[in-house]
Design goal:
Blueprint (H helix, E strand, L loop, with lengths): L12 E4 L5 E5 L24 E5 L4 E5 L35 E5 L22 E3 L3 E6 L13 H19 L6 E8 L11 E7 L4 H17 L3 H12 L3 E4 L3 E4 L8 E7 L11 H19 L8 E6 L13 E6 L1 E3 L2 E2 L4 H6 L8 H11 L5
Antiparallel strand pairs: 1-2, 2-5, 3-4, 3-6, 5-7, 7-9, 8-9, 8-13, 10-11, 11-12, 12-14, 13-14, 15-16
Helix pairs in contact: 1-4
Family: Belongs to the galactose-1-phosphate uridylyltransferase type 1 family.
InterPro entries: GalP_UDPtransf1, GalP_UDPtransf1_His-AS, GalP_Utransf_C, GalP_Utransf_N, HIT-like_sf
GO molecular function, one term: UDP-glucose:hexose-1-phosphate uridylyltransferase activity
């Protein structure tokens, strides 16, 4: 495995957008960001732009963010707000160029400080400000590219940006969970085609995370050991669903995959989050992540729409059994067919798979990896 040159990573170059939002430029070695003043006439932000409402029927929080109705929707390429804006008048990224950039979302689901409101037995309707943080991360200035197109060193820079933001947000008051993710493809619901992802700092544990941690606690109480480590070990022992494995990471289709295409990537060493990975593991993660995405794009004649979800956990307390991993999933179940989350999935959260995990793993394994 080639060693990437990231033993010393410089801090991002910080600037402020016209409405007071933070923006951070992450640069490849030897490159120096050159942001220009943001001269757009943007109104100052209202810190209380969304609301949290408690659903007593499920015990879950719902985010109400009506301002997102106004977000940019499928602009033409020459009006993309994520492309570089050298004049400071046209873009969310006021700069002649960039490698990787992170900025606060202009239309956030969560924003501002604060904590969850208390839930008491006597209150019928519990709500509070939508506290938290939502950021956008642009993987490249190339409007027509994708994560899979990045060179290994550039992909490693994205990982470093994820890691930096994870560390910052995990330390922020009121943030309980940091979630880095990417939605790729209009079939998934993407409204900006420029290669980008998002980073959420939630003020609560999301339902899926809470469910996984509950399973992990129950497993430890009944059997001892870490649930996720044992699942990884059993997938490796079985072998039939493993699509790629290195000395540091393993990628496999899980036994009970819910999506037509679903791949999980685990470090072979137990860690809670990106911050705990060492330099060699960060290199290895960037490389196996690229490998899997490139296999995805060779499945069909058109690029595979997908969701990438980085599951990260705090190292103490109720999250201590959480094992960092990535879940990649696609709704494409054939060259011309999509999997729709209809009544069983959407109303009952009861997934029905149209393909066997073993057949998907075999196909992805046969596609093979290609060097960047």
């Amino acid at each position: 495995m080639a060693k990437l040159v990231f033993d010393v990573v410089t801090a991002p170059t910080r600037a402020t957008l016209a409405d007071g939002r933070d923006i951070m430029f992450f640069a490849l070695p030897g490159r120096r960001p050159a942001p220009v003043p943001d001269r757009r006439p943007l109104p100052r932000r209202d810190p209380d732009q969304s609301q949290l409402r408690y659903d007593r029927a499920t015990g879950q929080w719902v985010i109400v963010a009506a301002l997102r109705q106004d977000r940019t929707y499928k602009p033409p390429a020459d009006q993309c707000p994520l492309c570089p804006g050298p004049t400071g008048l046209t873009s969310e990224v006021p700069a002649p160029d960039y490698d990787v950039v992170v900025f606060e979302n202009r239309f956030p689901s969560l924003s501002g400080g604060g904590r969850l409101p208390p839930v008491s037995a006597g209150a019928d309707f519990v709500s509070g400000p939508g506290a938290g943080r939502c950021e956008v991360i642009c993987f490249s200035s190339d409007h027509c590219g994708s994560f899979a197109d990045l060179k290994p060193a550039h992909a490693r820079l994205v990982v470093e940006a994820w890691r930096h933001r994870t560390a910052d947000l995990m330390a922020a008051p009121g943030v309980e969970q940091v979630f880095c993710f990417e939605n790729r493809g209009e079939e998934i619901g993407v409204t900006l085609t420029h290669p980008h992802g998002q980073i959420y700092g939630y003020p609560y544990l999301t339902p899926r995370t809470a469910a996984m941690l509950s399973q992990a606690r129950d497993h430890r109480n009944r059997h001892g050991g870490n649930l996720f480590a044992e699942l990884l070990a059993r997938e490796v022992d079985h072998g039939g669903r493993v699509i790629a494995r290195t000395g540091l990471f393993t990628a496999f289709v899980p036994f009970a995959a819910r999506w037509p295409v679903e791949v999980h990537i685990y470090p072979n060493r137990f860690v809670h989050n990106l911050v705990e990975l060492d330099d060699d593991e960060l290199d290895g993660f960037a490389q196996i992540y690229l490998d899997v995405l490139r296999r995805f794009d060779r499945m069909y004649s058109t690029p595979l729409p997908y969701i990438s979800a980085l599951h990260q956990f705090a190292a103490t307390g109720a999250q201590a059994d959480g094992y960092f991993h990535v879940e990649l999933m696609s709704i494409r179940r054939g060259a011309t067919k999509l999997k729709y989350l209809a009544a069983s999935e959407s109303a009952m959260d009861a997934f029905i798979s149209d393909v066997t995990p073993e057949s998907v793993a075999r196909r992805l394994r046969d596609l093979g990896g290609q060097p960047g």
